[in-house]
Amino acid sequence: xxxxxWVLALSAVLFTIGVVGVLVRRxxxxxxxxxxxxxxxxNLAFVAFARQQQSLDxxxxxxxxxxxxxxxxxxxxxIIVNLFRLRETVFVDEINLLKG
Amino acid sequence: MVPYLFLGFAAMLLATALMVILxxxxxxxxxxxxxxxSSLAGIYLLLQAEFVGMVxxxxxxxxxxxxxxxxxxxxxxxxxxxxxxxxxxxxGIGWMVGALMLLFAGLLAKKGWVAGPAATAPADLSGGNxxxxxxxxxxxxxxxxxxxSILLLVAMVGAIVMAKGRPASPEGEGE
Lengths: 100, 175
What we know:
The complex is a heterodimer.
Chain A (H helix, E strand, L loop, with lengths): L3 H21 L3 H26 L3 H31 L13
Helix pairs in contact in A: 1-2, 2-3
Chain B lengths: L1 H21 L3 H21 L3 H26 L9 H27 L17 H9 L4 H23 L11
Helix pairs in contact in B: 1-2, 2-3
C-alpha cells in the first residue's frame, strides 16, 4: 500500500517541474509540454485522493481533464502552427505583435 | 514490492520530466514526455486506477504525443538557442519560483493539510475498475459526458479552421 502522502509529494514536484518549464523555456512547444506536465500532476493528485476516499469521482474527473487536455492540445498546436506561418518563429519572446 | 515499483516509476517520471524541460531539442523533449507519461500510467496502475492508466497510454502517450511530434517535425525546428543576459535572468527567476513552490508544498505537508477526511461510502467496484467507471459515467455523470463530446467537436472544428490558414486570394479583394 503506497501512502497517499508519497503520491501527493510526487504530484507537487511534477507540478513544480511544469511551472519551471513554462518560466525558463522560450520555445512555445516546450512550454506547451510543460503545461501538459502540470495537468498530469493534477491528475495524479486526483487519482491519489480517489484511492484514499475509496471513491470513483476522482478518476471520472481525470477522464474529463484528459478530454479537455486533448481538445486544448489540438487547438493550441493549431495556433502555434499559425503563429509560425505568420512570424517564422516559435520563441515566445520574439512574438510581440501587441507591443506598443 | 509495490512501494519499490512506485519509487522506481516515480524516479523515472521525475527524471524524464526534468529532461523534457532541460533538453535543447524539442523532438527529444517530446520523446522524453512520452516516457514520463508512460511511467505515470504505471503509477496509475499501482494506485488501482486501471482504466485511467490505460487511457493515459492511449490518449496521452499515443494521440497527444503523436500530434506534438507531427507539429514539431512539420515546423522543422532546430536546436533552441538560449543565450544572453536577459534569458539567464529569466531562467534564474524560473528556478527560484520553482524552489519557492516546493517550499510552500513542504509547509502545507508539515501543517498536515495533505490528508483529507476519511472515506464515506466505498464505491461499488464489482466487475473491475473499468466497469465501475462506466456505470458511474453513464448514470451520474451522463450530462458532463455528453458535453465533452460537444467540446471535442468544437475543438476539432476550431483546429481545422485555424490550421487551414488564410486562403491565398481572399474574395472581394483587388476589385
